[in-house]
Amino acid sequence: MEWLNPVNIVNGLVNFLNTGGSVLLVIGIVTLVLWTFILERFAYYLFAHKPMKVRLKNEWDARSDKRSWKAMAIRDEMVSQIKERTDANVGLIKTFVALLPLLGLLGTVTGMIQVFDTMALSGSSNARLMAGGVFKATIPTMAGMTAALSGLYFSTVMPRWSARETATFADELQIG
């Protein structure tokens, strides 16, 4: 249970950030934003989506005219509202999932530049020095890939949820 101690968690996080360099902090911030958007999507589907659908469906059902050009335009506008709300932030989630491995590679490249710079200054090709530097340089890649994998499932599933919910709602609005 020692690992649940908040002091140990903070110390471990600080050691990890010191090992991987400043790019790890950027990866951590982007990952936090990614998961904030993912959780926002879950909160929308749990709390706001169904009341919005019910409200719009009741508005549609209360209309006496459901066949005119104006009624079709209103129906399309209601379907667009559902599509807009279900698609919100999905593009950002996909962008962050694609961005995180690139940030990891950036950290690796900057780490490798530091290794080569250190080797040039010391004037030797010490294998131990190189191994330690390469170890430090690869940590951002691992962190970026891991963070991207944590959001990859949701970046592929959420557009399908949006399309399904929009199509279902469009089918629920009876014409005529």
From TrEMBL:
Which controlled-vocabulary keywords does the entry list?
Cell membrane, Membrane, Protein transport, Transmembrane, Transmembrane helix, Transport
Asked if Membrane is a keyword of the record, the answer is yes
Localization: Cell membrane; Membrane
What biological-process terms (Gene Ontology) are attached? protein import
Q: Which family does it belong to?
A: Belongs to the exbB/tolQ family.
Residues covered by the MotA/TolQ/ExbB proton channel domain:
62-169
Q: What is this protein called?
A: Outer membrane transport energization protein ExbB
Membrane-topology descriptor: Multi-pass membrane protein
A cellular-component GO term for this protein: plasma membrane
Which ranges does the record mark as transmembrane? 20-47, 92-113, 133-154
